[in-house]
Automatic annotation (TrEMBL), chains A, B, C:
Keyword list, A-Z: Ion channel, Ion transport, Membrane, Potassium, Potassium channel, Potassium transport, Transmembrane, Transmembrane helix, Transport
Family stated for the protein in its record: Belongs to the TMEM38 family.
Segments passing through the bilayer: 51-72, 84-101, 210-230
GO molecular function term, any single one: potassium channel activity
Membrane topology label: Multi-pass membrane protein
UniProt main location, coarse: membrane
PANTHER family named in the record: GH25683P, TRIMERIC INTRACELLULAR CATION CHANNEL
Compartments it resides in: Endomembrane system
Gene Ontology CC annotations of this record: endomembrane system; membrane
Protein name: Blast:Trimeric intracellular cation channel type B-B
InterPro entries for the chain: TRIC_channel
Length: 276, 276, 276
């Protein structure tokens, strides 16, 4: 593929229209996530509590926008004013939960459908991170940390609203905190936000803007497909373990242990750094 | 009653001044609700933790406005700037919890007092739903769902803040989620919001505006009094069961069961749709 | 000390620049508080979950501003735009948790260091309460209660975010509600807010403004040092017990008990008013 054509594709990708197909893919995966989170109980729950079921699905679909708005002092309900997205989300929710003989759910779980939807969702995610960073940059042109936070939240909002989403359904799981064990999507959104911020605010990245965007899209889609097809769940893990060892005490703790000073006397320096 | 006179009454009702009498009724029922929620422990709790007691009562009184403001990006504390309401609320709280020999509480619990206060509160509720819908319509003229959500929250805000209200008092009951088993007030506020939105945004309702409003007031007061005097708690239930059977899988589930495909194998399709 | 010189000192204090030294002291105590809240587990936790550890420390550092912003409809993330404070906070967090052989933590725990930092933090607290009251007064010139709430929250924000802060670290302690058993800092911030509001809005306090401010600084520092050095934890307690006895039912309850009417039959009127 010659560079011209590649840049051309990149420019196409950056201008892709999201509504309605990407919204359908996003809503579909959100509804599936809610249904899977309900477990074996899903069928019965959706019949007994349609309102809670609908609300928690909407919260997953609009999570990124709502959380970001909440933190930026903008109306939390504003994402709902997009009637098109709302109708798509409601239709998809209905299809996943209430079609006769559960046909909707079975089709949605069918592997090829899931792969296409997942790939589209990753393209959507890249756009959301990009828009989030841009929006925050307009409000706080010098606050990199705010841009990065908003970008990450827009990219994986549902991860951060999981507690509230479950609470709407009457379940409370305080230990399922995204910050404790960030998922791959959170880390990828964080990385993408940082790259977008660097691209926007510094001259360190000399590639054309469209290429940076396209690179992130490819990275997200590639790892999503690896995750579904090959079961590779977190390519960041080795880097993290290295980073933790150098910056967050790993080496010093080991040294201290060898020298017998043993701050970490209880021997848990061994199982440290495995999870985060 | 001839139609002219009826319309005249309706026009009177729509212009009723709420402060201070309706605020007193509203605050009284809020303080009683807090006291009853505390149970047998109320007396001791109010002596040990006056601050938590006062705060949770204020939260119940101002719940609708605070939640709606929070979701619309407006200052959550703004409802407190109404000094008159705040003083009325505080005075009522004091009377319900701290009068010598518990006279205040006993008077408030006296049936005729409770009936009058309840009727007034329903009139207040209709006004709040109406104002909520109007306010949201100004901000998002095309987002019906936001108008309906804000109207419902304004009408029964305390239902949705129950978790926070109890949390202020150190109790955490994650399963007491309003969305899981909406109360009659939530459903009535939802219905009233929908009617107000239809009245405002479409031509489907040809009755004069004041009559629509008056109709909703009568509906709310009538069912409140039925609930207190006759013990009828939820006139929506039959309609809901019908709706669930048609739209949310009831019929299909039964059909599937008869055909032996049994998605709802565990037999709980029987007790389904009872609660919501 | 002659009054002139005293007023002069007061005028100096009111103009003290907070950044960076007072921010360092504030961040240091915040990081220590997080580390102590983690208990024996702190070392291992900080290695396993650096992100949650950093986030909860930042939440403690910026708690006042974030909560106040959230309640006033301003962007919750806005305090983070102050890059200087953010870098200071991050550096202090790193020093407290990750320095080799835990030198940073040991130095911070060294009594003279802690005393100086605590005294500086109280000066900072006075300024934050003052700024909070002023900010709220600009938004709602007639709502005293909002000024008092914002002043109190700015003064002891971390007390009110403790639940969220622990939740970020995956721990949920719903009974640790500040409102139930307000700490000395909350009560002192409340008192300071009330005095600032009276000073600003009435003519009841005739002392020059700088003196009022200086008096509050001295009061806060004095009791903080008493608390560290002499173990006096709550000078408000006797006043509170008196107030509760007069206004919140204590006397009447006793009277009722003597008269044998016994609303507080279970005999807990004795242990009443000890905690709040």
């Amino acid at each position: 593929m010659d560079p011209e054509a590649f840049l051309d594709v990149a420019n196409q990708v950056i201008k892709l229209k999201m509504f309605p197909f990407f919204d359908i893919a996003h809503s579909l995966l959100a509804a599936l996530a809610v249904r899977e989170d309900l477990g074996a109980n899903a069928q019965a729950f959706s019949r007994k509590h349609p309102l809670a079921c609908w609300l928690s699905t909407m919260l997953v679909i609009f999570a990124g926008g709502m959380v970001a708005n909440g933190l930026l002092g903008e109306p939390i309900l504003a994402p709902l004013k997009n009637t098109g997205q709302l109708l798509v989300g409601t239709a998809v929710w209905y299809v996943v939960f209430y079609t006769p003989f559960d046909i909707g759910y079975k089709v949605a779980k069918f592997l090829p459908v899931k792969i296409v939807a997942s790939a589209m969702k990753e393209i959507y995610r890249a756009k959301k991170v990009y828009d989030g960073v841009g929006h925050a940059a307009k409000l706080y042109p010098n606050a990199w940390i705010i841009m990065i936070i908003i970008g990450t939240l827009k990219g994986n909002g549902a991860g951060f609203t999981k507690l509230i989403e479950r609470l709407i359904r009457g379940a409370w799981t305080p230990t399922a905190m995204e910050f404790m064990q960030p998922s791959f999507y959170t880390k990828a959104s964080l990385l993408a936000s940082i790259i977008f911020v660097l691209d926007k605010k510094t001259d360190w990245i000399s590639a054309p803007h469209a290429l940076v965007y396209f690179g992130i899209v490819i990275f997200l889609v590639y790892f999503k497909l690896s995750s579904i097809l090959l079961g590779i769940h977190d390519p960041f893990l080795p880097l993290e373990n290295l980073g933790c060892a150098i910056f967050f005490g790993g080496i010093w703790d080991s040294l201290a242990k060898i020298l017998g000073r043993g701050q970490a006397k209880d021997g848990d320096s061994k199982d440290v750094k495995k999870n985060n």
